[in-house]
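Can't paste images in this forum, so I'm doing it all in text. The chain is below; anyone willing to post the predicted structure tokens underneath?
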Amino acid sequence: MKITVVGTGYVGLVTGTCFAEVGVNVTCVDIDKTKIENLKNGILPIYEPGLEEMVLRNFQKSRLHFSTSLKESIIDSEIAFIAVGTPPGEDGSADLKYVLAVAAEIGANMQKPLVVVTKSTVPVGTAEKVRNAVKSELNKRNSNLEFYVSSNPEFLKEGAAIEDFMKPDRIVVGTDHLNAEEIMKKLYKPFLMNGHPIIFMDIPSAEMTKYAANAMLATKISFMNDVANLCEIMGADVNMVRKGIGTDTRIGSKFIYPGVGYGGSCFPKDVKALIKTAKENNYNMRILNAVEEVNEQQKEVLFNKVRTHFNNNLKGKTFALWGLSFKPKTDDMREAPSLVIVEKLLKAGASVVAYDPVAMHEAKKILGDTISYTTDMYDTLNNADALLIVTEWPEFRVPNFNEIGKRLNNKVLFDGRNVFDAKDMEQLGFAYYCIGINTLKSN
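Text version of the structure:
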């Protein structure tokens, strides 16, 4: 089977590479010539554990190809995946111009029957717009070529995308034609052998499933952060509360860790888009509006703790930041809480020195030289007035506390991810602040 994947960003590159891994002949297409040449040379545009090795292996075995020509790539393809970006507009709506541009180009160049699949996260109703864009171009050519439109949303966690794709919880496919269903079933057959389910449904339901899933996960995070803030006020320990409710199988332990808010490419964008879609249809998503509001406020919680500790005077002080990406195992800086924290610290007259295992290159694109960067996590601490942990990278979990205390001007630590135990930190002589535990009361 031969397929084309348009877009070599996070979704497109992971999708194409994983299909190649099971023997599918895949061509990944992108208009960015530099990105395509880099990929041919083994230089990836994103960081994702295990992806680089898989790309190199399949490229060398000629199962994975890279091209800037969609016209040439779809000549013998049975399926064309659209996996380009859908950036949020100022009003929260998803911008579909790239998706529809690709659909039009497919219609202008396809030479045989084709399944056109939206892999990008798109609002309900997008498949019909894709269908119309393809059909319009075929009409211009006076062509009666048959094509089918399908929706196949991705459910990949950044940092675990390869595992998620190769061993999916479920595969969701929206289609309105039996031929398309059979072709998609054939494509996904290697992933079904271990009992992973493929769920076929109508196209609007498939489009909605992606948004509903991300909105539910975002809701769990914001709910837990709200509970954490109340725990802190009331003298409860949010870590104990989390364990107490996480063992309830109806709730589960995932996505109920308190912190400084969610970020990344999915949750913020998709929550906004779902709210916007509802508004356009005269419905108010009250819970999701609150989810978004809680999340934006949560990004300021750690800064507020810093400001309180230093009596509202941060001018001239230096703060060490461990972690910049929105979560571990990715270099993704989109909507990262660290950006809000850095902005607040700089605005208050402080300086920031940061370390992140993989995200500093991406951070520099956004923050430039407004902050300093180090290649060693301990070097950030030199003459700093406090340490802030913003992303829970594994290497931060068991640090050398003697080294931290020695290098900091003050033994002050603000833990935005509850990496450490409050009692342990107290015994080590640190002024310790975390999320959802009033450490001042516990002292």
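The radius of gyration is 24 Å. The chain has 18 helices and 14 strands.
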